[in-house]
Amino acid sequence: MEEYKYPEIFVRDKNSNKYICRVSDEYVLVKEPVSNECYGHIIYEDILKYFDLANPILEKDAIVVPEFSDEKLLKGLFVKKGTKLCLIEISGYEPYVSPREGEKINVKDKIGMVITNKYEVRVIRSPCEGVVIFVINIVWEKPEKYILAVVSENDVGQITIRKSQGNHV
Amino acid sequence: MSDPNIRNRKIEHIRIVVEKDVDFPNMCSEIYNEIILVHRAFPGIDLSDVDLSTRFLNYELSAPLMISGMTGGDPLTTKYNKKLAVLAEEFRIAIGVGSERSLLIHKDEPEIIRSYRVVREIAKDVPVIGNIGANTLLDLRNEDISYIISSIDADALAIHLNPAQEAIQPEGDTRFNVKILERIEEILDHICVPIIIKEVGNGLSYEDVSLFYSMGIRFFDIAGACGTNWILVEKYRRKDKITTTIADHLSSWGIPTPIAIIEARAAAPDSFIIASGGVYDGLRAIKNIVLGADLNGVARPLIREIYLRGLNAGKAFLETMIKEMKIVSFLTGAKSISELKKKPLILSSDMLSYLEQRGIDLREYKEIRGGIE
Ligand SMILES: Cc1cc2nc3c(=O)[nH]c(=O)nc-3n(C[C@H](O)[C@H](O)[C@H](O)COP(=O)(O)O)c2cc1C
User: Fold this and answer.
1) I want to staple B203 with a disulfide (CB 3.0 to 4.6 A). Which of A47, B109, B224, B302 is the partner?
2) Measured between alpha carbons, how far is B158 from B219 in angstroms, rounded to an integer?
């Protein structure tokens, strides 16, 4: 059976029950903060609380792990506080988004579709260019929506996260 | 994509379809009997005036009929495709090939290419339709799609939806998610022949047709639940208790052909609608036209006739069917397809209740059932 992988977000200085901490030049996944640069795990959709929506920027440093799993080494995407966000809203009866966190997109790329309540398909094209950093699914609103946050490629740092031994999370 | 069993499966499918009773229970005879066309004691025309010729994909067909896509992909299937193509050419009706996936898996094998290509070589003057599964589109590149079209000079590409079959099939590929719509969008941009969205015998619904219609597709083969039943076919291939039990419970799952015609017509008023699934006689074929279909598709009876009794039996089947279509048309007083589409249609109260519950307005449906020019 294929291993279950899902995206997770960690936000700087957030209290949580698991953290990614920077220890010297390394990022480790731990249960308790072990350095003064730690990122606490949050419920994915809560990242919206760290957006300044008026002038879309990210208000805290954050790390996205697009494919969180039991692997010993995980890939992460690092984005800094103050990073400009290009936000795309996709909403409708059955919205569907194709790119995942970490994927590069260009203006006019097909990034999703919406099936309307009349069973019509609308193709959504991207107004932004860059790397998709968050794909937030807002299921509690009707119609259901997705918000995609896209950032400039230069604003994304690639990091590797090691799971700390003896301190399993 | 490499599925070494795909060739054996083709042969196995034909054998089961031919040898076992794999039609839907009762083949919708009740529903069809309750669809009434009005008999005209004075038709106002001569039988010899009846001309059922139909335009389809820029060809003139002698009757609104096609041989639905069935086979190809193994050298052993060549002889069947050859005979089916002879029938199509001789009767001047359209023809489809079976799924061309094996053409992509065995790209350099001339015998495999020939098993499909033979259809175009023989059926020169009628539409030839390519075929591929919607789920497999996720693995195929646009060039692959161009290849399956060009290798048989197809006039259209049928993309089949067969979730029920795949769910029961031992090696079933049950990916039927929205990504497929995205792929079809891309393919529409890439190819220059029309796409036909088709089921394989469980029927297209209003919702299905509407989705693809909104993407610009205007050809649908509703392949309803009245004829070949893939849940039963796969049941014979898979002997385990769980699958057999499920297959038995689902043996009448699907949208019956006449209902799927109405659903499709309501969702896609100006589209070309093909009715297949248990259309085994001329009376049903004409009822389908009056209900809103533009063309009828036949699969199982033809492969059965040519497999068990040979080409002449296939000819006799089509001859009977077309003659019966003409007689029924004559008895309604219609000398052409366009006249047939305007003839009165009486539906049962069950059918009316169904339409009401589906939100299909009877009056609107009756106005558009003949299609919009
Ligand atoms: C032996 C056989 C093989 C078939 N293979 C395919 C196929 O590869 N692709 C497809 O779209 N439909 C396939 N079909 C489905 C037919 O095209 C048709 O839609 C369906 O069988 C309903 O028609 P019928 O009741 O006249 O058989 C196959 C049918 C038969 C009998």
Assistant:
1) B224
2) 9
Give the CA count within 13 Å in the CB-facing half-sphere of B152. Answer: 37
| Residues found in chain A | 169
Q: Is residue A1 part of a domain?
A: no
- One domain for residues A19 and A56: yes
User: In chain B, where are the structural domains located?
Assistant: 6-368
Mean pLDDT to the nearest integer, B78-102: 98
**Is residue A168 one of the residues assigned to a domain?**
no
Q: How far is the CA of B299 from the centre of ligand 1 (A)?
A: 6
Q: Omega of the bond prior to A143 within 30 degrees of 0, cis?
A: yes
Residues of chain A under the 70 pLDDT cut: 1-3, 166-169
Q: Is the dihedral of CA B186, B190, B194, B195 positive or negative?
A: negative
- DSSP letters for B70-123: ---SSGGGHHHHHHHHHHHHHHT-EEE----HHHHHTTT-HHHHHHHHHHHHH-
Write out the residue range of the structural domain in which residue A60 sits: 6-83+154-163
Q: Does A59 touch chain B (CB under 8 A)?
A: no
Q: Which of residues 85-124 of A touch B (CB under 8 A)?
A: 94, 96, 98, 110, 113, 115, 118-123
The shortest C-alpha distance from A133 to chain B (Å) reads 21
3 state DSSP class of B55? strand
Residues A20-29: pLDDT tens digits?
Answer: 999 999 999 9
- Six-digit token string for A40: 């606490």
C-alpha dihedral (B25, B28, B29, B31), degrees to nearest 10: 140
Model pLDDT for residues B275-285, shown as the tens digit of each residue: 999 999 999 99
CATH code for residues B6-368: 3.20.20.70
